[in-house]
Structure formats: C-alpha cells, structure tokens
Automatic annotation (TrEMBL):
Ranges where the record places region Disordered: 472-558
Biased composition (Basic and acidic residues): 543-558
Biased composition (Low complexity): 512-529
Keywords: Membrane, Transmembrane, Transmembrane helix
UniProt xrefs under InterPro entries: DUF6350
Entry keyword Acyltransferase: no
Pfam families xrefs: DUF6350
Protein name: Uncharacterized protein
Length: 558
C-alpha cells in the first residue's frame, strides 16, 4: 500500500480515537445538562467538563479547587479545598490503547509501520493539544504539558508495540525482519526464545486480567446489598443514578486491577493506613461511592490460596513454551542421508527365473538402509525388549533440542514480562481520590510486580526446568533375569559373512558353529533367548542355489 494512503488512514484512526473518547463523556453530560439542569444551565461549561473527564481517563492528573461558595454551603474545611485527583477511570485509556494497537497492526501489515505510527501519534498529539487549549476549567484543571504528553503516550506506546510485534511475525523485509532472521538462525533452541517469551507472557497477562475480573465480579455479587444501600443513601433520582452508574462503569477496569493485586497477595491501599489483602483487611472512612461497598470489611486467610492461580498461569505458559521447544517445528529437521547400497553376495544360480528373482532381491536390498549394531542398540533401546539400561543417546539428543540455558532464559523472560505488566497496570490503577486520607488509593506497583513475578517464575520453572524422562529400563525373561548387553556397540563387523559359502556367522541347525573371536574383538551374537539387534540380513548364497536347482527340476514345491 502506498505510504500516503497509510498516513491518511493512520490520521483517521487517531481522529476517531479522540472523537469517540470525547463523545463518551459529552453524551451523558449533555443529557444531564438538558434533563437535569434545564434551560438555566451554562452550556459554556459543557465542553471543558467533557474534556477534563477525558483527560482524567487518559491518566492526566487534575488539580481540583473547590470554590468558596461551595465550601460555605457545604461546611467543608477550607484546608482541604484543593487536592489532586489522579485515580483514573481506565475505561478511556483501555479504549485508546486498543484502538492504537489496531492502527499499528494495520500499518505494519501495509509495510509502512513507521509511517503509520508516527502519523497517528502526531495527529493524536495535535488533537490532544487542541482540546487542552480550549478546555480551561477553573474547578478541575490540568497542566497543559501533561494534558498533551500523557494522552499521546497512551496512544503511541500501544501502537508502537503492536506494530513491532506484527512486523516481527509477518514482515518479509526491513530492519526488524533482518533482526528476526538473525535471531532465528541461531541454533540450540535460541531461535525461538523471543517468540516463546512473548507468547508465554501474553498468556500470563491475559490470565491475570481474567483473574482480576473474576475476583471483582464475586466481590460485587457478594456485596450487592451494601451497594444498593449506598445508592439509596445518595437520594439521587433516575437521571442521577444513571450518570453515577456510567461513572462507576468507567472505573470498572480500575477495579479489575485491584482484584488482580488482591489475588496476587499484596492487595491494595484504600486511604492512609487502610489495606485490603487476603492476609487481612483494615479500612478507614470511605467515601459514599456505591461501588466501594464491594470492598470487604474482613477477609479470611483461605483467600491466600488465590496466589496459586498465578502459579498455575506460569505453569501453563511454561507448558506451552516447553511443548513448542520439543515440537516438530522447534528445529528444522535435517534432510535424510541417502542409504548406502549393500552388495548382493555372489551366486551360481542360472536360468531366467533365477535371474529375475536375483534382480528383485538386488533391488529390494539396494533400497534398504544398513543398520549397524550400534544403531540397532539405540533402536532396540526404544522398542525392543532386552535392553537393560536407558537409551542415553535419546537423552543426549533431547538435551541438545532443549538446551538448559535457553529454557532458563525463557522462564526468566516470562516472569519478567508478567511482572512488568503487573507493575504498569498497578501504576495506572492507583492515584489520589481526594484530600487527606484518600490521597493514596490503589495497589502499589513494586509489591504487586514482585509477587506476580515470583509466582509466575515458580510455575514456569516447574514445567520448563524439570528434567525430561530420557528412557526406561526393560527386562526379558523372568523377574530379575540378567540380560547380556555386551554385544551393544559391536560395530558393523559383528556378524561376518563367509566368503566361500555366503552363510552368516550365526550358528543354526545343521551348521557348524564358528570359533569364538579373538580377544579384543566383538563377542558373538547373543543366544536365541536374548533379543537380536535389528539388522537387514544378507541372503545366503546356498539358498539362492537351492532355489535355482528346484526351478530347473520343474518348479518342485518348496
């Protein structure tokens, strides 16, 4: 696709992202202005109010200054008239990030990801600047540089990450494709390490978000009566209840992150000195927001078992990575070598039928691969019954396919990705909700990242670093019967063919047993009570002579 078209589409994506975000705030506020305030409402305040809410949703902190008339009417202490509001309703930031990621993926698939990401970021930043310049609010105001930079980063970072990941996975040319090709050219399992880390980390992050959503849903259902009571205590009408409900829905992703931090173990802070965690809960005075009624007043230590879920998610990610490291696509299979030809022993068979039979046998044996005694020993170690020790060659091949260093890096990488994602989510879901004790609300990024990283590391290590079963010991005969494996590793010359008769070195019925080999040479073949090595046999010349003689006498029955 032409770069100009990609730039235009990226600019449209950025404009739509800003427009939809602002519309999501202006629509309910317009209904409130029309049906709640009536004709006496100041319509000039509608736009600044909508933009201010949109900025808060995109992680821009606001400085709230309550007017003196409001303080006098409500009796609020003037010392708390000014405070910072930075606890963001993450529904806006989530929409912006998802829309930005879609734009980055589209630009990468059009082979112009740099053009698309840069253009959309510039357009989004310009629109954020225009909204900041035209929305001066005397009650809740934001620093102009923050109002421009922070929403732009919320859009630019997901677009860049999504574009780079798509370029890595699908691009056939370019700088990222060259780096990917160099990485994938590495041997001993290192070629797939970046992809396995990204895939495992994504599995863990999605699972953690689902865990937080499940914990939040259970808490809301368990505290439904308390939430309804807070709604009734607010004495709001239908319009006020609708606006209040929409505002709480905007904070739903924030509550999901709180649930995630609660399940991970550290919990979250609600005001100064107030902690909510599975180990214990201590709450102070909370504002009368209905959804805060879902915060439990007390907890049981049995809820610490929720920490096993991140461990299980790490184990799942480790299993996915381990299965791909040993799967058929983990390493490029080597091309099979051409089988060597085994010469047919000399024979004195004459006649047309004998010639045809000899030619057929020659073609059959020429296409059959030669399996030496050493290779046969390894094969019987898998499928035979008579090998008294595990197949060490299979263990060596498995260790080569799964180098321990690559597995350690994948394990640590998955844990680091999960910890980093948890830290980012915790930082976005924490902030200030008001003055005084409410200046610190939400999970602490450091403890949450440490707990999630450690739990995921344990789970991933169980599956990725555990030793693999390299073989089994098998026996023949009765229980405890000894097995002679001294013939293993004898080499191709373990069974010679008599150059005069063509008979093999095995002792059969009617044949004179061959003398024992000299010291230092491979021992004779094991007896019939033991398993023979797998080897394509040569055809003794005497059988071919007997078959030719019978054919010359009139095809006597065999």
């Amino acid at each position: 696709m032409h770069r100009l078209i990609v730039a235009l589409l990226a600019a449209v994506d950025a404009a739509i992202a800003v427009a939809v975000g602002l519309a999501a705030t202006l629509a309910p506020l317009t209904l409130l202005w029309v049906f709640g305030l009536g004709g006496g409402a100041d319509w000039g305040v509608l736009w600044p109010t909508g933009v201010t809410v949109w900025q808060l949703g995109n992680l821009v902190p606001l400085l709230v200054t309550l007017p003196a008339e409001y303080l006098a009417a409500t009796g609020i202490d003037p010392s708390v008239a000014s405070f910072t509001l930075s606890l963001a309703p993450l529904a806006f930031a989530t929409f912006t990030a998802v829309f930005a990621a879609r734009s980055g993926i589209r630009a990468a698939r059009a082979d112009a990801w740099v053009t698309g990401v840069v253009t959309s970021t510039v357009v989004y930043g310009a629109l954020a600047a225009a909204a900041g310049f035209t929305s001066q609010n005397l009650v809740a105001d934001a620093e102009l540089w923050q109002a421009i930079l922070v929403p732009t980063l919320v859009f630019a970072l997901p677009a860049f990450v999504a574009a780079v990941i798509t370029e890595w996975a699908e691009a056939g040319a370019g700088a990222i494709a060259r780096v990917r090709d160099r990485v994938e050219a590495a041997r001993d399992g290192w070629a797939h390490v970046p992809g396995l880390i990204a895939r495992g980390g994504a599995v863990v992050v999605v699972g953690l978000i689902g865990l937080g959503a499940a914990v939040t849903a259970v808490a809301v259902l368990a505290s439904a009566g308390q939430i309804v009571a807070l709604f009734q205590a607010g004495n709001v009408d239908a319009l006020g209840a609708t606006v209040l409900t929409l505002g709480q829905l905007a904070y739903l992703p924030t509550l999901v992150v709180w649930g995630l931090s609660f399940a991970a173990g550290p919990g979250f802070v609600v005001g100064e000195g107030g902690v909510v965690s599975p180990a214990g809960t201590q709450l102070g005075v909370l504002p009368g927001i209905p959804v805060l009624g879902a915060i439990p007043e007390s907890t049981t230590t049995w809820l610490l078992l929720l920490a096993l879920v991140p461990v299980a998610l790490g184990a799942l990610a480790g299993w996915i990575a381990r299965s791909r490291m040993v799967g058929p696509h983990a390493e490029t299979p080597r091309a099979p070598t051409a089988p060597a030809e085994r010469p047919l022993p000399a024979t004195s068979v004459v006649g047309e039928d004998a010639d045809e039979r000899t030619a057929a046998l020659s073609g059959l044996l020429a296409t059959a691969p030669i399996v030496s005694a050493t290779d046969a020993a390894a094969l019987v170690g898998h499928v035979g019954s008579g090998i008294g020790e595990p197949d060490r060659s299979a263990a060596a091949d498995h260790e080569h396919a799964e180098p321990i260093a690559a597995r350690v890096v994948v394990t640590a990488g998955i844990a680091v990705v999960a910890a980093a994602a948890a830290a980012v989510l915790a930082a976005c879901a924490s902030g200030s909700l008001g003055p005084g004790a409410l200046a610190t609300v939400g999970p602490q990024p450091g403890p949450v990242a440490f707990a999630v990283g450690l739990e995921v590391l344990v789970g991933a290590a169980i599956l990725l670093l555990a030793p693999h079963a390299s073989g089994r010991t098998r026996r023949v005969g009765g229980a405890g019967a000894p097995v002679d494996t001294s013939w293993q590793g004898a080499g191709d010359g373990a069974y010679d063919v008599d150059s005069d008769t063509g008979a093999s070195g095995e002792a059969g019925a009617g044949d004179t047993p061959r003398a024992p080999r000299a010291a230092g040479t491979a021992p004779s073949a094991p007896s019939s009570a033991e398993t023979q090595p797998f080897e394509f046999p040569t055809i003794p010349a005497r059988l071919l002579r007997d078959a030719g003689a019978r054919d010359s006498e009139g095809d006597a029955p065999r």
